[in-house]
Amino acid sequence: MRSSRSVSRRTAVAAAAVAAASALLLTACGAEDPESGGAGESSSKTRTVTDVTGAKVEIPGGVEKVVVLSEMDLDSSLALGVKPVGLSAGRGQQGAPEYLGDATEGIPVVGAVTGPDIEKVASAGPDVILAGQIADKQVLEQLRTIAPTVVTVGKDRSWKKSLKLTAEALGKEAEVEKFVRGYEERVESVKQALGDRSGAEVSVARYSARGTAVMQQGVFISDVLNDLGLKRPGIQNDQGEGHSTPVGDEDIKQIDGDWLFIGTLASTGEDADLFRKLKEKPAYRQLSAVKNDHVTEVDGSKWTSLGGAEAAMSVLDDIEEAMAG
Length: 325
Prior knowledge:
Blueprint lengths: L6 H24 L16 E4 L5 E4 L6 E3 L2 H9 L6 E3 L20 E4 L2 E2 L1 H6 L4 E3 L6 H8 L4 E2 L8 H12 L2 H22 L7 E7 L2 E4 L5 H9 L16 E3 L11 E6 L5 H9 L3 H4 L2 H4 L3 E5 H4 L5 H15 L2
Parallel strand pairs: 3-4, 3-7, 4-5, 7-8, 9-12, 12-13
Antiparallel strand pairs: 1-2, 5-6, 9-10, 10-11
Helix pairs in contact: 2-5, 5-6, 6-12
């Protein structure tokens, strides 16, 4: 994965790319194909979507090509049956998050967690850009010269709100209602499967070269656990300042609980090697969850990153398999 370069260094090249993309966009809007299986229903009418910043975005009818600039946008689009034409690499990933598997095969990478590559976004010729959490006004202005741009992820990082907004942008309102119903039904079935264990304290942690971190409130995985009514230990009940909260080796008990779900963002590489070493440390081996064999090693790109609709459904499967088996 190539690092995103600064906007100032890209301006000259981006100008040419944007012009080319604009021509592609005009061509696409003028030649809609009802049989093409694009994002929304074929229509000559535009619609207005209000994004999380309050901006009103005019979306063209018959959206065919969507670029997604966050993991949650990618997850939401796929959950709604739309395969994007460009994606930003996931946190700690070279491309799409591992948990999405073959569904992302062939989608080119047009950016990273640090920001989009403007030329690559333009070259994808999108009808709509889903901009995730991007707040840089200069970047957003450049994206808007390419295609209508919707900032989809708010400060609360709610995957449900983001999914609904994505559905509005893509003309997939019926699909989102069906998905949410399915999720709510799955939550209830997992609750029943957990039985007496539904009152257990569940800890979620991530390990990387920076050390151990726990997931507090206000992030994706905590929202899913709250839907299940599961308890959290210690500081994991508090609102976090960032996406995750570092915990030093001397305070490793902060990650303990009746059940512990822990993993790295990638299944291979430095973080995975370091995680193997963590499991050999005496302090880790003294955790009650470890001694009781209540530890599940998880895909951190699914459990401890930005998350999304598909991630939520998969997490429910993981919890049921680990705790109700």
